[in-house]
Amino acid sequence: MENTPENSYNLSIRISSDGFSLSVFDKEKTLLSSKKINTSLFTMSLDEVIQFIDNETQLNYSSVRFICESESYTFIPKALFKPEYAAFLLHLEHKPEKNEIILFNILPAWEAVNTYSIPGTIHNAVSLLFHNATIEHHLSWFMDEKVRLKSETCIYCWNRNTVFDVIVLNDRKLQLINSFKYRTPEDFTYFVLNIVDKLTLDLNKSTAHLFNFENKPELGIMLEKYINIESH
After folding, report:
1. Domains, the chain, ranges and CATH?
2. What's the mean pLDDT in 51-80?
3. Whole-prediction pTM value?
């Protein structure tokens, strides 16, 4: 790494309610280093957020990607979306939050737009520190990086400690995007099987793809009693 110009590095920062992580990649997207910091930025002032992020990001990166977890999101068909209506569409499902900034990510592969909100302090800190940073909702990132269009029925699950996000594809079409809170393996299994039932999916021809479940293997162990799973 010593012989690599510092501006050839790419930085990815993932922000959640319980902390944030930093990952550094080279031009070939090979992970060079990562770090998890268990300090929430959501409750900090703008100056505190700026100082905290700045202390952890000292190199001049060629690109910076911010992935922000948010429970306030809604997906709109691209053909029906207009930027000026982003707030209206989001607030049809979610109550406005104090000091929120409303953003959207266009997902061409899915012909969809993800409209979401993040704390204004986070948005302003990112804008001040990294003028060319890309800001993404965590589900936009997940769909772009992990979900693949396939003919068979696929249930993609991303674990986030006590919440899991689920995306269902059936015959190459999006059927569902949602998030569920859970406490036990029984809760998790119930939600997945309930999705299969409500969408009238063929259990024997469906596969649940599990991501970020390394620290909770008991979830996959119970679920695989009822449906084929693939861990990633």
Report:
1. 148-231 (3.30.420.260)
2. 88
3. 0.88
